[in-house]
Amino acid sequence: MHTSLDGFVAGLNGEMDWIHVDDEMFDFTGKRIEASDTALYGRVTYEMMEGYWPTAGEHPEASKHDIEHSKWYNSASKVVLSKSMQGQVLPNTTIISDHLAENINRLKQSGTEQEILIFGSPSAAHSLMQLDLIDGYWLFLNPILLGEGIPLFPRLEDHKKLKLVSSHVFPSGVIALQYEHKNE
Length: 184
Known about the structure:
Blueprint: E1 2-4, E2 8-10, H1 23-34, E3 38-42, H2 43-50, H3 53-56, H4 64-75, E4 77-81, E5 93-96, H5 100-110, E6 116-118, H6 122-130, E7 136-142, E8 150-151, E9 162-169, E10 175-181
Parallel strand pairs: 1-7, 3-4, 3-6, 4-5
Antiparallel strand pairs: 2-8, 7-10, 9-10
């Protein structure tokens, strides 16, 4: 998830025009994404992704990234956290509308997923954080201060200790940080 230095993932109205991405970042994240087979989204992000990625790689002007990510997106299992989509049947997609902890833990324990990656979806991420269902974080720290917006982290009841696993600095000044929960 991209974040500003002051901890926001989007502006007050969901603006993300401040996020820096380039070919080096696409290559870096592409390798990370290929190691997974399941994407988790909130409804808004899912609808945005579904409106673009299924056919993005088919366009004559498609970039290498668009072709690769479109292929991955079409083969990946999708999990959508949404009350308004409850009961919908979509190909290769699971809708979770209630019993979030139970359903996510069932997915994690099924052994069919290599790993579940959440893409954007700050509201969904906040719900998962509140229930301590996120095992690790991949953050892309952008060198910008927004001052206000949608926070990366909600107010948490307990401290969450994290361990830095890796970091990578891009020429643009964006820093990729990988954290895991620190076991004590």
